[in-house]
Amino acid sequence: MTNTLIFVDLPTPDVEASTEFYRELFGWTINPRPQGVFHQVVPGEGLHLGIFSETEQYPDPAPLPAQQPRSGLHTRVYILVDGPPGDYLNKAVLLGATALWEQSFWKEFNGHHASFLDPWGNQIVMWRAPDADEASGKDDEASS
């Protein structure tokens, strides 16, 4: 297979705080490689992610010039969640995230989603197909 997405890195000024945020929110295993500079996120099935220091930008051989604060549109990282996206959104907000949109149904793709900006400005969208809820016996706000 060619041209396959294999990894996504999330920039942050505080790798340790970001690690705790995502460990607490999604229950992910996170491997420091090296501690405080770059952490590998192992979310179980699916692609791995990275959390990297904005100042060191490891493993880049030469850090990029300092960037202006981000504003406007961002790359979105979609996470397939095992429960209602709204539940994860509420937990993310309690952990310091900013809600972007509440759980809603996206008819075109037949699934529920909700989104937040993490405390470091990365946009995360939580996704769940209705079929998953029917299979597990859950009913999460079926048609907003």
Automatic annotation (TrEMBL):
InterPro entries per UniProt: Glyas_Bleomycin-R_OHBP_Dase (IPR029068), Glyoxy/Ble-like_N (IPR053863), VOC_core (IPR037523)
Residue ranges of every copy of the VOC domain listed in the record: 4-129
Signal peptide position in this chain?
A: none
- The name on file for this protein is VOC domain-containing protein
- What is the organism of origin for this protein? Streptomyces albipurpureus
Q: What is the lineage of its organism?
A: Bacteria, Bacillati, Actinomycetota, Actinomycetes, Kitasatosporales
